[in-house]
Amino acid sequence: MTTGPAARFAATRRTWEPIDWWRLEARAWQEAPTVRRVIAFFAPTSVFRELASHSGRNPAITILLLIWNLVGLGAPVVGAALLLGWVFGRADVAAVGPAGVAFAAGAVVAGAGLITSGRDAGRVDAGSAHAIGWVHALAAGAALIVSVLATIQDRAEGMWGIALIAADLIVGVLYFVVFRRKPTDGSARWKATVDRLAAAVAALDEHTRARILADIGDAIDELETGGRIPESVAADARQTPPGMLGARFGSRES
């Protein structure tokens, strides 16, 4: 009798695609959130969303986090836009103060992310971190130049905003300092994630781990006996380390 979530999923599939290995893992480890979070680093985007849907997180929290992140990226753009009226001659004075408030909001969000992620910078993708840094550094840098020019010409409203704009510029630059790209960035990150996965599996209590692995074994048996995977693939799957079925047999399609 197939009672585990992974085995039930395998039993419902008439055909078996590479990405289904990721989906199987998502279901198998749904009661082990620490393992599931590590698998999310490997998984395609669509499966990552599926993993998140099983995380038990309150939808309201997810929405708030989305808004928080959007503020972090959008605030510097808004701040720079507030100065465009003076730059293009549509305003008599540059709104440095209001722009500074917008940049301050972006600095708070980006700074919080810098603090939380910077504690373990080796696990953060440097490219993604640098993208955030570019948004803040470029927008704040341009705004700072405009604000200083406006102040020199006595055309600035709220000169105190210069300090807030400079703060966001510093935060943006720090993203490049803290998250330095290394030559072995990709391979080192992969190895670190694999090690984290093994540690997360080992940290489970013996009963939970045994039940999940038995469920995965039942799922592989179901796929083999149903003719959806060949015997050779089933044998290899049984020898694959826990949590690595998707990484070994699955695709990276979204």
Please give a handful of descriptors for the protein shown:
254 residues, mainly alpha, elongated, 13 helices, 0% strand
Give structural notes:
The structure is a single chain. The protein has 254 residues and is mostly helical. The protein is built from 13 helices and no strands. The protein has helices spanning 5-12, 19-28, 33-42, 45-53, 59-81, 84-87, 96-118, 126-152, 161-178, 185-203, 206-225, 231-239, 245-249. The chain is elongated. It starts with a helix and ends in a 5-residue tail after the last helix.
The proportion of residues in beta strands is under 5%
Q: Give the termini distance in whole angstroms.
A: 32 Å
- Residue stretches low in confidence (pLDDT < 50, at least 5 long) are none
Share of helical residues: over 70%
Summed up, the helix count is: 13
Mean of residue pLDDT values: 86
Overall SS class? mainly alpha
Rg over C-alpha atoms, rounded to the nearest angstrom: 25 Å
Largest sheet: none
Task: Give a quick rundown of the structure.
This protein is mostly helical and 254 residues long.
